[in-house]
Backbone:
C-alpha cells in the first residue's frame, strides 16, 4: 500500500474533463507541496505540476493541480488521446523522512 | 540543455554486484541533488534516495538503506547506484532524476534519465 492514495484507474472521452485525486496525511501533503508526474507507456516519468499548482515547462494549461488540507488533485480538461498514461502524485513525508508516491492512476481515453 | 543519460540494460545473477550510472550534462552537477527511483515490472514508482554531489550528502529511503549505495564522480558529472549482492526482487527499471529545491517544503524532480532495466535471474 502506498502512503499516498490514488484511484487505480480513471477514464474519459475526448474533450471531457477528468480529475485524479491524491489523499495523504498531515506528515506529507499537509506540510509539503505536491508534485504530479505523467508516465507515458514505455517512457520515463515526466514532471507535470510542481508546488501543488505550477505548470512544469512545456505543459499545456489543460492540466491543473490543486491542494486542500491533506488532499490534492490533478485535473485534465479537453481530454486528448495523447493524455492516456499513468499519473503519479508525490510529496515529502516528514515521518518517513523520504519522498512518497501515490500508487498511480491509469488514465484511459475512451 | 539538461540531460541525464543512464547506462544500458543489465542482466545479472543473484548474488552478483552491479553499479549503474547516470551522466549529467547541461547544468551545474555539484549544486543539484540526484534522486533514484525504482519501478518494478507493472508497478508504481518507489523513491530510493538522493545524493548531493557537492558534499556527498546522502539520504536513503528506509526501505532501501543498507540495500544499495549511492555515489558520484564529480570529475565526470556522473552519479551511481550500486548493489553488492543482487536479488531476484531487484529486477526493475531504475531512474535517476535531478532534484530542484525551491524552499524547505517545496522540491521536485524536473529532469529524468531514460531508465536502466536491471534483470536478476539465475
Residues:
Amino acid at each position: 500500500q502506498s502512503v499516498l492514495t490514488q484511484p487505480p484507474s480513471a477514464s474519459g472521452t475526448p474533450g471531457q474533463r477528468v480529475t485524479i485525486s491524491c489523499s495523504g496525511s498531515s506528515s506529507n501533503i499537509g506540510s509539503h507541496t505536491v508534485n504530479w508526474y505523467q508516465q507515458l507507456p514505455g517512457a520515463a516519468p515526466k514532471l507535470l505540476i510542481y508546488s501543488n499548482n505550477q505548470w512544469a515547462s512545456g505543459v499545456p494549461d489543460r492540466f491543473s493541480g490543486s491542494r486542500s488540507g491533506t488532499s490534492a488533485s490533478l485535473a485534465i480538461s479537453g481530454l486528448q488521446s495523447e493524455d492516456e498514461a499513468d499519473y503519479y502524485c508525490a510529496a515529502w513525508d516528514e515521518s518517513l523522512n523520504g519522498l512518497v508516491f501515490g500508487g498511480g492512476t491509469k488514465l484511459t481515453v475512451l | 540543455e539538461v540531460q541525464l543519460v543512464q547506462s544500458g540494460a543489465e542482466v545479472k545473477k543473484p548474488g552478483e554486484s552491479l553499479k549503474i550510472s547516470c551522466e549529467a550534462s547541461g547544468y551545474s552537477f555539484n549544486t543539484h541533488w540526484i534522486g533514484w527511483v525504482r519501478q518494478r515490472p507493472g508497478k508504481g514508482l518507489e523513491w530510493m534516495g538522493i545524493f548531493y554531489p557537492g558534499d556527498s550528502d546522502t539520504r536513503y529511503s528506509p526501505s532501501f538503506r543498507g540495500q544499495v549505495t549511492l555515489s558520484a564522480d564529480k570529475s565526470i558529472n556522473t552519479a551511481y547506484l550500486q548493489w553488492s549482492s543482487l536479488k531476484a526482487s531487484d529486477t526493475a527499471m531504475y531512474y535517476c532524476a535531478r532534484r530542484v529545491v525551491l524552499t524547505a517544503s517545496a522540491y521536485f524532480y524536473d529532469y529524468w534519465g531514460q531508465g536502466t532495466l536491471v534483470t536478476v535471474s539465475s
Observations:
- The mean pLDDT of chain B is 96.
- The longest strand of chain B covers residues 92-103.
- Chain B touches chain A at residues 35, 37, 44-47, 49, 59, 61-62, 95, 97, 100, 102, 105-110, 112-115 (CB under 8 Å).
- Chain B has no helices and eleven strands.
